[in-house]
Amino acid sequence: MRRLFLLTSAFLFATNLFAVAPQFWRVNAAEDFLAGDLEGLAVTSRGELRVAPGMKKVASFTDPFVLSQTAAPNGDRFFGTGNDGKIYRLRGDDLKLLYTAPEPEIYAVSFIDGALLVGSSPNGKVYRVDPESGAQTVWFDPKQAYIWAITPATDGDVLVATGVEGKLFRVSAKGEGKVLYDAPDTHIRSLAVRKDGSILAGASGKGRIYQINREGSAIALYDSALNEIDSIYVDASGTGWAAGASNVLPSSAPAKAQPKNQQQQQQSGTTTTTASGGEAKKDDEPSPTVDVSFSFDDSSSTAAAQSAGASEVYRIDPDGFVETVRKFDREIVYAVSGGSDGAVLLGTGPNGRVYEVRGTDVALLGAVPEKQIVSVSGSGNATLITTTNSGAVYRMESRASAHPEFRSAAKDVERFSRFGNYRIEGRNLGEGSVAIAFRSGNTRTPDATWSAWSSPQTALEGNINSPAARYIQWKLNMPKPAADAAVDSVSVAYMNRNVAPQIEAVSVQDPAVVFISSSYPAAPQVVEATNPDEYGIFTSLDTPRERGSADPGKRMFRKGYRTVLWRASDANGDDLEYDLSFRMKGSDKWLRLRDHMDETQLNFDTSQLPDGRYELRLVASDKDDNPDAGLTDTKEGIEFQVDNTPPKVTVTENGTDVTIHITDEASPIGRVEYSADAEKWIRVTPVDGIADSRDETFRLKRSDLSGKFTVVRAVDGQYNVATASVR
Q: CA–CA separation, 344 vs 339, rounded Å?
């Protein structure tokens, strides 16, 4: 309470231009933290910001895409790249180009039986590459457009997943292959093998997860709403984990390759040998290549993140039950692999994030600046991730990041605002454990026009030293990162500059129209439900006849009344009150109709006013929420006519006709009717055919009225009524 009092007191001393209620921007949920940029910080599923494992870049590539990776038993790592089809070996900190394939993309690599198997695309082959010399043979040619995955089966054979015919091959150690399963999908995109030899295969096209036995019999375990199952992993317990994505892969094979310069093969320093059943390549034989477009989004902008596709993570129980664990609306999971202590790791884009899955909890573990993580491997004693934009390899360290930082999304506070206090809450946040800085500006995206970052403040609460603006952003560092420290919430107080309310519309309704709420008492009844005198000579006020209406029971009539309706708004959300005044046109003195109203309509009795032309003035004010500096908007000059004088009726006889002459000083003649012997009113048409002026003449046949008690009634535009008898 004391903190709240101090915070509120600080705002009370602000300039009166900002005298509106303080508001608070709170970042305190996982989604809030994930909307920002993180480096060296993790976000738990409970919405905590804590120090993450360090991400050390161990290799950089000139190649734009590092597409695949595998590990050898001795700790060597091998990487397949695009768009030049290169294979690299990482031994310790030494990165070496080992082999360049004739085809431009290497989507699949696997280390099996002392050799590296490399699957090239498009229109490629599976090469067997010596991990030391880089010498290669064509080990298996599936005669397919794409090779997506290579993984060992439990019986010593090798499984090769391909597209665009959706075929899964079983290949013997001699490189002799046959189709194990021909899926209805266009691509078999990902593979994982369980201990019992059954295969989990993710497909693209129909987005299905298949379970395939050793004989090639398959059942569909899951039919995803997304296009592709791009990665599958089986953990030590036999539980499968799969990622579905909204990617769309080619549905047909690309054009046949065109030759490319032999120089690319010579760069690796390797010789070409003959595979079993293959044809020898001559040293001077040109190698084919094709131009392909890669499907990963290479934009790192906020707009790219907002337009990114969708993704889902599925858990596949040993009995075949599949459950969705997490949905990502603006991220795509490209890689699923194992982490420490039974955790599952997810590599995503376009924000370059690594997530950790434990049970049903999903936590952000870290991020890299390249923005696209396309493979994750926890083999051996280290976890390595590969990226695109540009190609790089990172190793996840066991120790905490040395320089953790979180940068919030820019907050739109909707109006030019003054900023007050901040407050940081969390666990084990000692003195100097966090430092926070702020900047502000008036553009959606921070740029050079924004203020500079304020000096970092290490207190858990304090003043925000940034100038008034519409947008604000903060960044938080942990100068003394500790594994048990966590930030739960960051609050920023701000106060919109008060802006005047705006009257958007004012209208005066037709004469005698009033609007009655449902709470209006039913008796005594003082309003008519229909236009006055419309249903006969003896209209009753006790049981008015109901008429069809878009809003029956609300729009009513009362002679002599006028109703004013208006619409107003306040950008600050302040409550508004209204003052309504009137004056006769030409007068300089306004007279009060009603003050301090919160309604947006008023009906009033004009029967006591002299006839004439009047005008209204409406004032809207926000002073209830801004007692010291309320602002107003005024609309005046809304005119209306007051006419309480009935028309004059003159009846004369002229041969066989009865002439009725009606005049009115202020209003046009609305209608004229007659009733003979108290029967139904009969409308009369004027001589000129239309009643639209203040002087009208009507004629009746004398023979129609002879011997009857006849009454003529004239009603003007203000519902003033005059009657006369015809003798």
A: 5
